[in-house]
Amino acid sequence: MERRLSGLLKLNHNALVISITELIHDTGSHLIWSFWSLYVLKLGGGVEILGLFTLMTGISSIILHPVLGYVSDKVGRKKPVVIGGFIVSFFPLIMAFADSWVWLIPGVLLRAVDNGLWITRQALFTDNIESDKKGRSLATFYTIMSLTASFLPTFGGILLDSMGITQGFRIGLYFSFVTHLIQSALNAKYLSEPSRLSTPDRIQRGDLSRFIGEVVASIRNNRRFQAILLGQGILSFSQGLINQFTIIYVIQTIGLSKTEWGVISSLSSFSNLLLRIPIGTTVDRIGNLKGYIVGIVMQSTYPILFINSGFFSAILLCSILNSLGGTFTQMGREALLVDIMPKDERGMLLGSFAAISSQGGLSGSLSPTLGAFLWDSYGPIYNFYLASFLGGFSILYYYKNSKGLRDNLKNDKLGTVSK
User: Is CATH 1.20.1250.20 correct for 7-190+210-418?
Assistant: First the structure.
């Protein structure tokens, strides 16, 4: 059965296991996490607290992402995934028992560890895909893990509308706790350590103290990585201006219900579910960089279109555009990163990239504080227009650097063949 499924999906054992356990992990998140901002507000926080939480996550990510990636390069992929997975499975339980926004802080920090472990799981997956079909393999991976995103947000909206934000969200957190435990148990039973790491190094005293120097050296010696690091950092900063606040604008300003927002989230995810593999195949055909830029164009158009939409169907179309653009961006970016990262440094570099340039890292975590200030001082419209402007700036940046990136990637492939 496993061989048939692996052959059908073009994924080997570990890649298939990670895909399925990520589906279980994200099932807990898809039910309620798009309503996170409303839960914080209900527990007494404001938009400035949302910005603070995102900043805390970003600061944690600066440390956790590269450290956990480095540890996985040293001791193997499986051990951090399994042990860390059992530990972080308790963050939803901590959040469920919070009676004010202050008591959410331990859960927020532990969730940052879960985000850091995602890098290790991602590295384990990319270790196990075919080099000439990266776009399709990544698209298959994200399609599997996002299956429940096409309907669970609708149930989450119904849950919160019927039971109230606090009680409904807490029920979702209990469910998330269970799914995290199941994910970790299945990873422990079915994952196997990649052969290249079958005799892992022991972390000696002084290894972690040298780790910062190794990270800096790896980034300094990889110009293509630097280029993508900066470009994605600009894009993540722009998206951080609106991500935490979009649902607040939809509920409080436009007047949609939580169920309607859940339907929008579900239908956007469903469109992605149908088109993710074709998009991954398209990225393979047109080139990773072109696919990446196409996605950035779509995502940068979204904030202006959204802020000028005042009814359900228009917001739905904008959300679908942004969702599909995010898939183009993700497929192109991650395939590019696989191309430019040495396999024995993949965990460390993926961690460094997430820490600095991802939406959950430094770049995406600084902007919500600015977004909260703009929201309180001038109104939400400035968040969305500034997000589009910065997204457009990232397009110009990649356009200017595209020739160098293409040439470098071509030279790398020729060098690999000659070896």
Answer: yes
